Amino acid sequence: MSKLDRFLVSEDWKGHLKGVVQCTLPRPVSDHFPILLDGEGVSKGPVPFRFENMRLKEEGFKDLLKGWWQSLSFNGSFSFILAEKLKALKAILKYWNKDVFGKVGVNKKLALDKVGFWDSQEKLRPFINGGTGS
């Protein structure tokens, strides 16, 4: 086994940033562990809006989206209308998302915590082949 993912920093860089830690994150898909470099006092700001692909799998979502888009009406230049429709659609999607999926961030964290738990168990115990030994 080898460690492929690392952060390389200089002593000067470490002196400027206090409370910086490096840790591995759960590996939900790959056989590589993503790494996180986190620091104290870093302001994260508001969470940006992200479109989750899971919404596309929800039955009737595309029709809802089309209806919402067509119901939005603004006056002005094409770029102004587009920007306003996108802002309004964002608000609609946030409300709909909470109503249909609940707190996605919390559910995602719980799922990743489970993946992390099983990853740690895998590190502690060697893989044992339950087959016929071939």
TrEMBL record:
Protein name: Endonuclease/exonuclease/phosphatase domain-containing protein
InterPro entries xref list: Endo/exonu/phosph_ase_sf (IPR036691)
Organism of this sequence: Vitis vinifera (Grape)
PANTHER family: BNAC02G09200D PROTEIN (PTHR33710), ENDONUCLEASE_EXONUCLEASE_PHOSPHATASE DOMAIN-CONTAINING PROTEIN (PTHR33710:SF64)
